[in-house]
């Protein structure tokens, strides 16, 4: 799997899970911004992206805050992919290129 495809799938998964979480929270009347967190890749696996809000606290130790900017409630669910993708380029290694060759 190519590097770009791995990153795209990571972003897609994060955006979809984030949209589901935001939708579920809004149905409960809980409206709060979400922050982008990442887990760096290792020699055995690719990294991971997650959108988390206050309900997810404490954040698992292996996840690091990607940026201080929050995904606000005025961003439509359909734009979550673009929001996450625009912030991924500044992150440390998310994808192990050696695993992409397998």
Write the layout of secondary structure elements.
Elements: H1 3-27, E1 34-39, E2 48-52, E3 64-71, H2 80-88, H3 97-100
Antiparallel strand pairs: 1-2, 1-3
Helix pairs in contact: 1-2
Structure commentary:
The structure is a single chain. With 102 residues, the protein is of the alpha+beta class. The chain has one domain (3-100). 37% of the residues lie in helices and 19% in strands. It contains three helices and three strands; from the N terminus they run αβββαα. The chain has helices at 3-27, 80-88, 97-100; strands spanning 34-39, 48-52, 64-71. The chain has a three-stranded antiparallel β-sheet with strand order 2-1-3, with helices on one face. A hairpin with an 8-residue loop joins strand 1 and strand 2 (48-52). Helix 1 (3-27) crosses helix 2. The N and C termini lie close together (7 Å). The model has no long low-confidence stretch (mean pLDDT 85).
């Amino acid at each position: 799997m190519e590097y770009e495809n791995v990153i795209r799938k990571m972003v897609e998964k994060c955006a979809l899970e984030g949209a589901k979480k935001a939708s579920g929270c809004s149905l409960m009347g809980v409206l709060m911004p979400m922050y982008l967190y990442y887990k760096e890749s290792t020699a055995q696996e690719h990294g991971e992206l997650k959108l988390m809000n206050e309900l997810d606290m404490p954040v698992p130790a292996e996840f690091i805050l990607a940026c201080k900017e929050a995904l606000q409630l005025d961003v439509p669910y359909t734009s979550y992919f673009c929001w996450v993708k625009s912030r991924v380029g500044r992150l440390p290694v998310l994808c192990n290129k050696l695993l992409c060759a397998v």
